[in-house]
Amino acid sequence: MKLAQALGLRPGETVAFTGAGGKTGAMFGLARELGGTIILTTTTHLGAWQAGLADQHIIVNGIEDIPPIESDQPQILLFTGPVNAENRLTPLPEDVLTEVHSRCTKIGIHFLIEADGARKRPLKAPAPYEPVVPDWVDLVVVVAGLSGVGKPLTEEWVHRPALFSGLTGLVLGERISCQNLVDLLSSEVSGLQGIPAGARRVCFLNQADHALIQAMAQRMARQLSGIYERVLIGSLEKPAEDEPVFAAHSQIAGVILAAGGSERLGAPKQLLDWGGSPFISQIIKNALESRLRPLVVVTGAGHAEIEKACRDFPVRIVHNERWAEGQATSMQLGLAALPEDCQGVVFLLSDQPQVSPLLIRGLIERFSAHRNPITAPQIAGRRGNPVLFARETFDALRSVTGDQGGRAVMQQFKVDWLPWVDDRALLDVDQEGDLELLQNAFFLH
C-alpha cells in the first residue's frame, strides 16, 4: 500500500512528522508519491546533506524571500533557514512558516513538516518542548522504528534514554519490549505530546522488515488503534513492490441490525435459541470477540425483549421507531450512533448467529491490508455477510431508502472480496424450517 493511501491523506492537507525511526524518509517518500508541487520544511533541524533529497532547496530568512508557489510546476521544494555551525538546516521563522502554510492552503497543495528530532535513533522520548507542531497542522504522523524493540535502553538505540526510562519505568540497560513502546506511544506526555487538539493522528510502526517483526507489530497495532485514527505497519527501507505500508489498522465499529418484525417466521428471530442463548446474544458475543468497537444494536419490533437480552453486554442500544419502513432506516440510525472518527463499520444481521469471529476478523485484516471502500466475503461464488464499509461509503449509505440495506451501494464502490470456504455462513432464518436447517448444519439439533 502506498503511504498516501494508508494515511487517508486528503487534498491539500498539511502533515507533520514526529517521533523517530524514519521521519525524514517518510516525509520525502510521501512527497515523491504525491507528485505535483509539494513544499517541505522543518520546525527543528534537518541535516544539510538531506537537502539533496529535494528537487530544489531554498533558504528563506523572511517573508520577502518566499518564492512564488505554483501548483502547475511539479517539484519537491524544501524551504528552510540557513545552515548552522553543526551543518544542520535551521527552521523557518514563525511568521514565514505561517505564511508558507497560508499560501499552500490557498492553492490546495500539500505542506509537509519534519517537526521532531531523534539523532538518527529508531526510538526517542520527547523533551518537554518537543515536538514543534504548529496548531494549524491537519495530520500528525508519529513514527517509531521497530529495530529498537528488543534492544537495550541506551543512547545507541534511544534518543534521550533517561526520559524513556522515566516514562515507561524501564531501567537503563534493560531490553525494550513491545509493551514499553506501546506505553510510550499511548502517553499524552510522550507519543501524543504536542499534537494539536484538532489534528488527526496516525502512528507509523516503521522498520517492520521481516515477518516476525510484522507479526509483533500487528499485536501492537491492536492496542494502539483506539488511540490513533490509524496505525500503519511498514518498511521504508524494504518496501514490498515499492509500497512501504503492509497494513493500516484502525478501529472498526459494529452495527447489529435487529429491528425487523420477522413477519414470515411469525416469531422474533432475534430471540430464537442458539445453543442455549438468544440469537442476538450470540451475535453480540461474536462481535465483541472480533474486537468490533463500539458495538451498536438497532432494535425495532419487540424492542423491550431484545433490549433485555442485550442488557449484560457493553453495547449501545438504539431504538428505531421507523423500522417498518425498511432496513435502510436501521442502518442509518446505526451510522448516526458511531463516533466521528470511526473508519469503518461491519453490519451484522440478527438472523446469523453462526457468523464466526474468525470471518469478522478476516474482513478486518483484509481491510487493513488493502483499505478498499467495501470488503465482503465471497462464498461459493456468492456475496456473503457480514460486509465491512469504509468511512468513504457512509454518505452513500445515508442516502439508501427502503429495505435494500448496504447492497444498494455496492455498485458504486470497489469491492474487495475475501474468499471464504464455509458455505454455512450463507444460511439465515426467514421462514419455518430455516432454523432447523441452520441448527443441523452446526450439529446443534
Written overview of the protein:
The protein is α/β, with parallel strands linked by helices and 445 residues long. The protein has 2 domains: 3-249, 3-Layer(aba) Sandwich (Rossmann fold), CATH 3.40.50; 253-441, Alpha-Beta Complex (Spore Coat Polysaccharide Biosynthesis Protein SpsA, Chain A). The chain contains 12 helices and 23 strands. The protein has helices spanning 3-7, 23-34, 94-107, 161-168, 178-186, 211-224, 279-289, 303-309, 327-336, 357-370, 394-398, 434-441; strands at residues 14-19, 37-42, 46-47, 56-59, 75-80, 88-89, 111-114, 123-124, 139-145, 158-159, 200-206, 230-234, 245-249, 253-258, 273-274, 277-278, 295-299, 316-319, 344-349, 374-379, 382-383, 387-390, 415-420. Strand 20 (374-379) and strand 21 (382-383) form a beta hairpin. Helix 5 (178-186) packs parallel to helix 6. The longest helix is centred in the N-terminal third of the chain and has 14 residues, at 94-107. The protein is elongated.
For the terminal residues, how far apart are their CA atoms?
46 Å
Largest sheet: 9 strands, mixed
Q: In CATH's first tier, which class of the largest domain applies? A: Alpha Beta
Rg of Cα set = 25 Å
Principal-axis shape equals: elongated
Which keywords apply here?
445 residues, alpha/beta, Rossmann fold, Spore Coat Polysaccharide Biosynthesis Protein SpsA, Chain A, 2 domains, 9-stranded mixed β-sheet, 8-stranded mixed β-sheet, 12 helices
